[in-house]
Amino acid sequence: MTACAERIEGVHRIAVLRPSAVGDFVFALPALQALREAYPHARITYLGKRWHRDFLAGRPGPWDEVVALPPMPGVGAPPGTDVDEAEVQGCLDTLRAQRFDIALQLFGGGGFSNPFVRQLGARITAGLQAEDAPPLDRVLRYTPLRNERARLLEAVRLVGAVAPAELSPRLALVERDRAQLREAAPLLDGRPLVVLQPGATDARRRW
Fold first, then answer.
1. I need a labelling partner for 2 at 20 to 30 A (CA). Which of 34, 43, 54, 196 fits?
2. pLDDT digits over 160-179, tens only?
3. How far is residue 99's CA from residue 123's CA, in Å, rounded to a whole number?
C-alpha cells in the first residue's frame, strides 16, 4: 500500500476528476469521504458527467459542487468523440479561474485524463498513472484488475487522506428519491424492496 503523505497546508479548493458511470461513482464514495475528512473546510468540486450534476443536485455528500464536463475523448467520452473545442476551452478557463490547490485524477490510467488534469493549473496534481501515461506531481501506479474501491482509497492517500471509519458506500436519500419510488412502485406499502441491476456498459459485466 502507498504510504500516506502528509496533508497539504493551505488547501482551500480541490478538484476530483471521475466522469464515470453509476457503479464506478459508487466505488469512489469512500475515497471522497476520506478526502472530505482530511480537508473538512476545503471546497470539493466533482468533475463528472451531466448525470452526476443532476443526480447529486441538492444531495448531501462529500462534495460542494458538481461540474458536468463537455464530451472529451477518453475523459467521459469514447476515444474519437467529436470535440467542441470552444466549449472545452471555456470549461477549462472557468475551472482554472478557481485556482485549485489539489487536482485529483481518479479516472483510469491517465492516458487522456492526466493531460486534462494538468491543464487545470492546480498547485498539486495527483492520481493514477499507467506506464505509458503522462505523469502528475504525485502518482499511484495504475494496474488493471484491482479492487476499485481499494485503489481509489490508496490514491487519495497521495494527498494525506486516510480511509474513513465507514467503508461501505452510502448515498443520502432526498425527497425526490422517495417520490420517484412511490411513482415507480406504488403498491409496496412500506415493504422491503430488492433491486437487481444486471446491466453494464461493458458487455463482459452483463449478467
1. 43
2. 999 887 888 989 999 999 89
3. 8
